[in-house]
Amino acid sequence: MVLPKMKNFEGLVSIEISDAKGSNVGALASEILDPSLSWKDIEWLKSITKLPILIKGVLTCEDAIKAMEVGVSGIIVSNHGARQLDYVPATISALEEVVQAVGGRVPVLRDGGVRRGTDVFKALALGAQAVLVGRPVVFGLAAMGEQGVRRVIEMLKDEFEITMALSGCPRVKDISRSHVRTERDRLQSML
User: Which of these, 2, 20, 94, lies nearest to 56 by C-alpha position?
Assistant: First the structure.
């Protein structure tokens, strides 16, 4: 089998496949991901810093509750770009469950899938306090450097403001759950 060259792994690992162990990319992942990490590590982190600890990768109410129990300062709803595990839910689908579990006790941010101002609006309507924007910023940087990043942020802001206006929301605090419909809403309406 001929595999494409992976520039991000060049010089670090071979992608040759060995029938005995699989690919060396899998071996690299095993080396850099620590399976011993646990919720107890949050306590250790809190002991060595005064900075707020936000936990990223929360997709369920159970994990959100556990994160609050160990004392995080905020939760980032993220599926890590869905690169770590196939079939994880989209962050917009998991957001409301996490927000409800948290009940306003810590901020909830949405990471992933933010490409347009309407995505920002939906996240806020479902209870996120903010969104994190990654790929569009990187694409803007790659295309036009600093000016590309500025343009991406400007486009998101403009689209967000248009969405607010079309939804009858003169202020961010006017955005509410009633402004969006989800798959869950559709299924409940069929009952």
Answer: 94
Give me the sign of the Cα torsion angle 19, 22, 25, 28: negative
The pLDDT of residue 1: 45
Q: In terms of DSSP bridges, do strands 17-18 and 22-23 run parallel, antiparallel, or are they unpaired?
A: antiparallel
> Quick one: CA dihedral 85, 74, 133, 33, positive or negative?
negative
Which among 88, 152, 163, 157 is positioned nearest to 125, based on CA atoms? 163
Per-residue confidence at 15, pLDDT binned at 50, 70, 90? Answer: low
The answer to whether residue 25 scores a pLDDT higher than 90 is no
pTM of the predicted protein model: 0.80
List Cβ neighbours of 66 (8 Å cut-off, separation of 6 or more). 39
* Confidence (pLDDT) at 20: 58
pLDDT tier for residue 83 given thresholds of 50, 70 and 90: low
Catalytic residues: 80
